[in-house]
Amino acid sequence: MANLVPFWLLLSALLAPFASGDWNILRPKKSHLDLGDSLKVYCESWRVNVELNNVKGFEVVPQECISHIKKYMTSSQYTADSERAIEEVKLYLSTCCNLEGDGTDAWIFDVDDTLLSNIPFYKKHGFGGEKLNETDIEEWMRSSKAPALEHTLKLFNLIRDKGIKVFLISSRGEDLRSPTVDNLIQVGFHGWSALTLRGLEDEGKEVQKYKIKARQRLVDEGYHIWGIVGDQWSSFEGLPTADRRFKLPNSMYYVA
Ligand SMILES: *[C@@H]1O[C@H](CO)[C@@H](O)[C@H](O)[C@H]1NC(C)=O
């Protein structure tokens, strides 16, 4: 031990000029990170933890992260992340399933931000940075103007063409059935087996519980649910579930 002392003395002497303030050799100041960079790191970490379902039930995107979320949701990264998720579904479908082939094979899709993109709406409402106004979003949904998420549309067609029945389970209300169907058809979705929307008896119920009930009904009818594609954790959690669940990115809102 004693023979180490001169080394430490030498080291302290060498470092003395840098030893001002709170500088510490083990914790050097991150001078290479300016404020913008550290905000970007902070907001990206928030976004990833939303996807991981660690950040739950947020009402609005944190104000300081609105521009980060806007950048992400309109970036080629968002498109690539969504496409990758769909590629993984295709990979799964190519090997996974001994399809029953008797009309009992089933697949579930969410509607909003899974089949239809609400980005044009959120673009006008701070990308989730504004508290959602029910009147405004319903008006948007009634306009039937949401574009398709193109990669999900291709997957939808592939699954349906395999003879798997496609079930759409959405947290939209039953009163939006007609504009929702119009919107889906206009952008190219055809041939689903049923569209489940929230009726009066499901109003006020947590979306997760409503979706569990919808899946239970399919299982009771004898369906084998091979997979779910959705953008919300409330579409996956609870039993019965599907063999696999595929999450699309969405950091603009959280449906509990
Ligand atoms: C929601 O938006 C409408 C107009 O689109 C407005 O009249 C109403 O006050 C808003 N509601 C809330 C709670 O902000």
UniProtKB/TrEMBL annotation:
Which InterPro entries does UniProt cross-reference here?
Acid_phosphat_B-like (IPR005519), Acid_phosphatase_pln (IPR010028), APS1/VSP (IPR014403), HAD-like_sf (IPR036412), HAD_sf (IPR023214)
Whether Nucleus counts among this entry's keywords is no
What is a single molecular function from GO for this protein?
nutrient reservoir activity
Quick one: signal sequence residues?
1-21
Q: Which UniProt keywords apply?
A: Glycoprotein, Signal, Storage protein
Q: Which Pfam families match?
A: Acid_phosphat_B
Q: Which NCBIfam families match?
A: plant-AP (TIGR01675)
- Family classification: Belongs to the APS1/VSP family.
This chain's function reads: May function as somatic storage protein during early seedling development.
The name on file for this protein is Acid phosphatase 1-like
Question: To which species is this protein native?
Answer: Cucurbita maxima
* Gene that this sequence comes from: LOC111491594
